Structures are given as C-alpha cells and as structure tokens.
Amino acid sequence: MNYGNLFIITAPSGTGKSSLIKALLNSDSSISISISHTTRKPRSSEKNGQEYHFITIDEFKKMCNDNVFLEHAEVHGNFYGTSKYFIDKKLETGQDVITEIDWQGSQQIKLQYPDSIRIFILPPSFEEIRKRMIQRAQDTQETINKRLLAAYKEVKYAKDCEYLVINKDFDKALSDLRHIIKATKLRYKTQAIKNLELFTKLGVTNNDINDSIYK
Ligand code: 5GP
C-alpha cells in the first residue's frame, strides 16, 4: 500500500508560488518536488534539471507517445509535462510529492489520483501579480500581458481545489501551506499505513483501512 501524499499546487504566474514552495522544501525534507519537462526556453537564472528539464518539441512529442507523462498541457504557448515514473516511485516508497502545475494538469492528475490534494495559491490582487512579474524582469512585456490575461482565467479554477492559500503576507501563506501538509499527513489512511503495526494490534484490518473514505 502506498502512503505518500501527492500535493498539486496551482497558481497564476507572479503569485509567489515558487518562492513559497522553495521555503517549504527547505524546511521539510520529507517532501520531494516533481521537476517537470518543458519546451520553454530557460530564463537566465534557470538551470537544466533544477527548475525544469528543458527539452525540444520533438523530444516532448516522443515522450508523449511513449506515455512518459502523467499529465501534459500547453501553457502560455509552451508544452509542460509531469513524469509518471518519478511521482509513482516516490509515492510507492511513502514519500510526499509536490507538483507545481497549471489547472489543466491539476484536473488530469485528480482524475487519476483522486486522493491527491489540490492547493490553489491566490495573489492579493492582479496589480500585485503585474508588479511581481515586472520586478522579476525575466519576461518580455508581451509575455507579461499574455500571462496576466491567463491569470484572470486561471483563478476561476480555484473553486475546484480542496485548499486555498492567499499570498498577501509571505510568512502567513507559508504557515498556511505547512498546516495543509501537516493536516494531510494526519488523515486516517496515511496514519494507518504508516503505523500499521499499531493498527494491527488494535484489531484494524487492511480491509478497514481500504474502506476508509478519506485517504
Ligand atoms: P513557468 O513557465 O512560469 O515556469 O510556468 C508556467 C505555467 O506552467 C505555470 O502555471 C506552471 O505551474 C505550469 N507548469 C509547470 N510545469 C507544469 C507541468 O508539468 N504540467 C502542467 N500542466 N503545467 C505546468
């Protein structure tokens, strides 16, 4: 039985999602991040294999045909995909995994992994997103405009997520994220599988565990 939890984090560009996740990972070594493949060109600060695996469109197409991806989508004119092998391997060995993907990918994964936890990070305002993208100084004006337009659409999908974090104050948002993760680790099935010996002593059977409505 696997007992790793899969967290799907979605947010419009410029919401501060990457900084939040980075801070979260720095303080919690039990969580791994799934590094996506993308056909987008690396930004000046990005390194291959660190933020993304940067690949060509032909490589991406081949990986799609080989069913490498758990989900894939076109976002802002580039292709992105999540490795199924990486996620499954982590979950099978009881490790928690975060994927940082768009709403299309989030919907695709939720259908295949109904126990996954979807978290949407909301910006305090669209103006704040615009300011952050300009400050980041890594995208052209055209890209910023494109991403701002997409942000208006993306926030509509927040209603599909189990949890919502508003990144108005970084520390508060980080604390909210940590609480969501902690609460998820305390769900019945996760606890039962992790503490199987105790549960067996208490007379709980594998069927009881599998029957639990909540993972
Ligand atoms: P960026 O190019 O700014 O790093 O990311 C652009 C968008 O692509 C973000 O919304 C990000 O969450 C999304 N994204 C990154 N990796 C994946 C992925 O593997 N699958 C999907 N569906 N979206 C992704």
What's the SSE blueprint?
Layout: E1 6-10, H1 17-27, E2 31-33, E3 37-38, E4 53-54, H2 57-65, E5 69-75, E6 78-83, H3 84-92, E7 96-100, H4 103-112, E8 117-122, H5 126-136, H6 141-154, E9 163-166, H7 170-185, H8 188-194, H9 196-201, H10 206-211
Parallel strand pairs: 1-7, 1-8, 2-7, 3-4, 8-9
Antiparallel strand pairs: 3-6, 5-6
Written description of the protein model:
The structure is a single chain. The chain has 215 residues and is α/β, with parallel strands linked by helices. It has a domain at 6-34 and 96-214: Rossmann fold (3-Layer(aba) Sandwich), CATH 3.40.50. It contains ten helices and nine strands. The protein has helices at residues 17-27, 57-65, 84-92, 103-112, 126-136, 141-154, 170-185, 188-194, 196-201, 206-211, and strands at 6-10, 31-33, 37-38, 53-54, 69-75, 78-83, 96-100, 117-122, 163-166. A five-stranded parallel sheet has the order 2-7-1-8-9, sandwiched between helices. Strands 4-3-6-5 form a four-stranded mixed sheet. Strand 5 and strand 6 (78-83) form a beta hairpin. The model has no long low-confidence stretch (mean pLDDT 93). It binds guanosine-5'-monophosphate. It is an enzyme of class 2 (transferase). It catalyses: GMP + ATP = GDP + ADP. Its main location: cytoplasm. It is found in: Cytoplasm.
Summarize the structure.
With 215 residues, this protein is of the alpha/beta class. 27% of the residues are buried. The chain has a domain at 6-34 and 96-214: Rossmann fold, CATH 3.40.50.
